[in-house]
Amino acid sequence: MINKVVMNADAAVEDICDGATVLLGGFGLCGIPENCIAALIKKKVQGLTCISNNAGVDGFGIGMLLANRQVKKMIASYVGENAEFERQLLTGELEVELIPQGTLATRCLAAGYGMPAVFTPAGVGTEVEAGKEVRVFKGKAYLLEEAFDADFAIVKAWKGDTAGNLVFRATARNFNPLMAMAGKITIAEVEHLVEAGELDPDEVHTPGIYVHRVFKGAKYEKRIEQRTTRNK
C-alpha cells in the first residue's frame, strides 16, 4: 500500500506555484486547513485562484492570504465576515465570483465524479445566469454549471491514515469531503495520523484514493467565528 505521508505543511504545498487554482475546505473557520494556509503564506506564492465556501475573516484563514495580496481571484458563496475582502472587491484589486452554496458543492461533486458539468435551477433569472447556457427540462429552466478545474485541493480532517483515508469530526466535515474529491492533487492535514488499516472502514468519510498527500498538523487554534452567549 502506498504511503502518502509527507513531513509537514511546507512539504505538502511545496509544488503549489504562482497562478495555481486551489480548493480550500472548511465552512467559516470550522475545519479549515490552518497549517497549509500558513505554509502558503510562508511560501509567498502569488496570483492564486481560491475556491472556498467563504473568504475567512480578517487576520485568520484565507483572510491572511488576502491581506498579503496572494489571491488574484476568489470563488466563494459567502464573504460577509472579511473587511479586507470587501475593500479589495470595491477597489477592483480582487476578482470575485459569487455562486450559490449548493452550486459550489455540486461543482465539486461533478469534478470528483469526472463529470464536465451539471444542470441546476439555482441562479436562474439572476446575475448568476449571465453568460451561461440555460436549458428547460419538463418545463423548468436550469443553468449549465461546469465542474471545477482545480490544480490542488487542501482539506483538514480529524483523523487520517498513511494511505490517505480520512475521517472528519462533526460539522468540520462540511465542504472537506467534496473538495477532497475535486482536486487534481489533494492534500490533507489531520489532527491524528494512524497507520493504514487502523481506521474502521465503515467510519471513513473520504477514501484514500482521492488523497495524494497527508500529514499530521499542529497547533490548531480552532477559532470561533461568531461567539454567541446568553445571560443565565
From TrEMBL:
Keywords for this protein: Transferase
Protein name: CoA transferase subunit A
Lineage: Bacteria, Pseudomonadati, Bacteroidota, Chitinophagia, Chitinophagales
GO molecular function, one term: transferase activity
Protein family per UniProt: Belongs to the 3-oxoacid CoA-transferase subunit A family.
Top-rank taxon: Bacteria
InterPro entries referenced in this protein's UniProt entry, alphabetically: 3-oxoacid_CoA-transf_A (IPR012792), CoA_trans_fam_I (IPR004165), CoA_transf_BS (IPR004163), NagB/RpiA_transferase-like (IPR037171)
Pfam families linked: CoA_trans
Entry-linked PROSITE patterns: COA_TRANSF_1 (PS01273)
